[in-house]
C-alpha cells in the first residue's frame, strides 16, 4: 500500500469533518422531532477567508436545542509574522528560522450545543488536523457542562468515554481527562467549567491512520452518546428559578471562551469568520 501524501491526509480529514457535520445535524433534528411537532430553525452559512480557505456553519434553534452550532473550517496561510499564532499552534515544536516563509494548514469541526432545559447539559466537541512544514498532528476533545450535575449522566458519559479511549490506548483516558480538567478551568473563578471529558493535542504516534481513526471515534462518540443523555432529560419540567440559574452558569461558559479558549484565539488570529468563531456563545446569558 502506498503511503498517503499530505494532500491525501488533508482531504480525508476535511471529508470526514463534513460528513460528521451532516450526521450530527440529522441526529439533532431527530431529537427535536421526538420532542415536538414544531419545526426547528436551521441556518446555513458559507464563509471565505481572504488569506485562504473558509468554512461552512450550521446553526440549529429548536425546542430542545436552544442553540446548536456545527462549524467545519479549512484555513491556510503564512504564519511567520504572528508569534502569538505560533504559540497557539504549539510553537514548542518549531523554531523561528525553521518556519520562516512557510505556511500552515488547519481543518476541523467544532460543535457546541446550549439546551433549552436546565436539566440537559451543554456539550462541546472539536477535532482538528493541523500541518506545518513536515509536522502534522491531531487535536480535539469533548466535554459536558451541566447546569445541575446529574451523577447518572456523569458516570454514563465518563464510562463510555473511557471505553472508547481504551480501544485505542489505555493511557489515553486518564491522560486526556486530566488535561481536560486542567484546561477547562476558570482560574479567575477558581472553578471548573463543567464535569470534564477529554482534551488532547499533538497526537502524532507515527501511525497517521490510527491517529485519524481515534479522532473519528471522538466525533462518533458525540453522535452516539450525547443524544442518549439529551433524550432522558429533555422531558423534565423546570421552573423559572432553575432557568435563571442556567443563564448565570452560562456566564461562566462565556468567560472561559473569551479569556482562555485556544480555538477562539486561533480563529481570531487567523482572520477567521467572527460569526463562526463566536458560534459557541449561548443565545441568552446573565451575570449578577
TrEMBL record:
Name its GO BP terms in alphabetical order: protoporphyrinogen IX biosynthetic process
List, alphabetically, the Gene3D superfamilies matched: Coproporphyrinogen III oxidase, aerobic
Q: Which PROSITE patterns match?
A: COPROGEN_OXIDASE
The protein's Enzyme Commission number: 1.3.3.3
Keywords from the UniProt entry: Heme biosynthesis, Oxidoreductase, Porphyrin biosynthesis
Q: Which pathway features in its UniProt record?
A: Porphyrin-containing compound metabolism; protoporphyrin-IX biosynthesis; protoporphyrinogen-IX from coproporphyrinogen-III (O2 route): step 1/1
Q: Which SUPFAM superfamilies match?
A: Coproporphyrinogen III oxidase (SSF102886)
The name this protein carries in UniProt is coproporphyrinogen oxidase
Q: Give the gene that encodes this protein.
A: hemF
